[in-house]
Amino acid sequence: MLKSFRNFLRKKLLFVIFIGFALGILVTIYSNKAIEATSTPESCEMCHVHPHVTDSWKLSVHHETRVGIHIGCVECHLPPKGQGFLKEKIKASSRDLYGFIFKDSADFNWEAKSTLEQAQHFVYKESCVNCHQNLFPLTLNKEGQEAHLYYSQNEEELRCINCHLNVGHFDPNAKHAKNVEFGDAGNESAEKYKEAAKVNAHEDYTETIPGTTVAFNMKAIPGGSFKMGSPEGEQLRKPDEGPQKTVNVSPFFMAEVEVSWDNYLAFYSATAAEGRTTDTEGARTEADVDAISGPTPPYGQPDQNWGLGNRPAITMSYHSAETYCKWLSQVTGKTYRLPTEAEWEYAARGGTETPFFFEGNPKDFGEKGLFGKLFGKSSDEAGKFIIYDKNSGLKTSEPEAVEANPYGLKNMMGNAAEYCLDWYAENAYEKLQDGANDPKGPVSGTERVVRGGSFKSEIGEVRSAARSFTESKAWMKTDPQMPKSIWWLSDCNYISFRVVCEYDENTGKN
After folding, report:
1. Angle, helices 261-271/318-332, rounded to nearest 10 degrees
2. What is the C-alpha separation between 26 and 145, in angstroms, rounded?
3. 92 in the Ramachandran plot: left (φ > 0), alpha (ψ -120 to 50) or beta?
């Protein structure tokens, strides 16, 4: 009896195991079928209501490869199978489904989502190298070999899309080569200025650059004393902003806005190192009286295809900004240069001692968490004066987008960060003498001071006292040229500069 019961249980157990095994096989088969069915481009298109995602993909080199293979969405936007594919697919599917149901695709900033900052979260390097296992094929040109060699030596820091951002979605405006035509489109028919502005007193003036059609406004900044840095209790303050010191600043002139593309291209056209008139031996002719060598053609499109004109000139190196100031001084007969850190903060504050030159504290505008969203001030309030991450759309804006500070200066905070003359030191204020006259920072260093924040900055980074610095290595890590450019930055699209003019014997000072 007991033996028969045991046989019955054994058969039952075997039957249950068989049914479970069969169900497991069926679940596995149909789960794989479901995964495959939801991994096709057609499936992705159901949720991604992107204005041109399919069209740009079909125009790209990844749609119709040289060997006739179509590269679909998941081959780039998910890691390879066995390397976190299922986990990332569940996350991506949940995120996309939520967006499809609860969000309006018309509100998405698709242009911003196509930038490197956004794309790096949705494109996997593992997927790139899974297909492109040989980085040095016989068909690769010399420039490509040098770039891939550099990549192989810096794999931990670089992604494939640092250089190949548009291979999956074709962008007709993207340029991945030396841009020898950059700056050619000028208004040659407009009448050019014959002389620079005459300045006879410490008053606002409009500079006119001889031989060009370019003019820009300079504001007379009165001399005075102010507390440099931020008090210990200021919201979102960082240690390098103190201790506060009272310093004295002499009168000077400062540009109303950052150097625009119109301004910079006047310099580029006059001094560009390639394309200048030379004699038969390659030496400069007498026509090259400026004696200043300017930038070589950039790699790609420095304005990021956001537009030239009045937008701030971006992506140039500190050396390029310094050279521009030397050229501007030479052609106008005045003393132009970058502002010292003290001059910059003094001008940015416009006589105020608060975090901003307008009313409010950083956390009023930050909208951090539910409490901030319900009770904080609208970001539009700060957006009247600042182009930062809340209102920029992740690109620069023209000066008309904001109101000026008390000294008549626009975009001192936000839009594009600005080079200063000083070397950066975290403890610079500790060594600064209280009551110092026109301080110029440390006598040496490795990086320069950057002020003002940018269109990428959070609210705490666009306070009057906020400090930053250049990042020489990081800003050039994907420059594919050997040697790297001394004029253009390959990995920083948010830096610009603003000129000051000294109030001296060339500008009406007795």
Report:
1. 80
2. 49
3. alpha
In the chain, count of helices (H) and strands (E)? 16, 12
Neighbouring C-beta atoms of residue 211, cutoff 10 Å: 14
Q: Above 50 in pLDDT, residue 453?
A: yes
Q: Which residues make Cβ contacts (< 8 Å) with residue 98, sequence separation at least 6?
A: none
Q: How far is the C-alpha of 58 from the C-alpha of 255, rounded, in Å?
A: 46
| Segment 394-424, tens digit of pLDDT | 999 999 999 999 999 999 999 999 999 999 9
pLDDT beyond 90 at 255: yes
| Contact in structure between 455 and 496 (CB atoms under 8 Å) | no
Nearest Cα residue to 451 out of 364, 342, 357, 305: 342
Helix ranges restricted to H, 201-317: 261-271
DSSP letter, residue 303: T
DSSP-derived letter for residue 11 is H
In single-letter form, the type of residue at position 70 comes to H
**Per-residue 3-state assignment (H helix, E strand, C coil) for 319-363:** HHHHHHHHHHHHHHCCCEECCCHHHHHHHHHCCCCCCCCCCCCHH
Top pLDDT among 59 and 23 is at: 59
Q: Tell me how far apart the alpha carbons of residues 375 and 377 are, in angstroms, rounded to a whole number.
A: 7
Is pLDDT of 35 > 90? no
What percentage of the chain reaches a pLDDT higher than 90?
A: 51
Question: Rounded to an integer, what distance in angstroms lies between the CA atom of residue 386 and that of residue 397?
Answer: 10
pLDDT at 369: 43
The residue with greater pLDDT, 275 or 63, is 63
Tell me which of 326 and 170 has the higher pLDDT.
326
pTM: 0.85
> 122 Cβ partners below 8 Å, 6+ apart?
77, 92
Residue 364 amino acid letter: D
Whether residue 506 contacts residue 335, with contact meaning beta carbons closer than 8 Å, is answered with: yes
Tokens of 54: 């399919």
- Per-residue pLDDT at 249 exceeds 60: yes
The domains found in the chain, sorted by start residue, are 38-162 (1.10.3820), 205-278+286-507 (3.90.1580.10)
Other CB atoms closer than 10 Å to residue 283's CB: what's the count? 8
Number of C-beta neighbours around residue 359 at 10 A: 10
Give residue for tokens 């069209």.
55
Under 8 Å between Cβ of 214 and 196: no
The 10s digit of each residue's pLDDT in 162-173 is 888 888 888 887
Taking the alpha carbons at both ends of the chain, their separation in whole angstroms is: 123
Beta bridge partners of 247: 226, 436
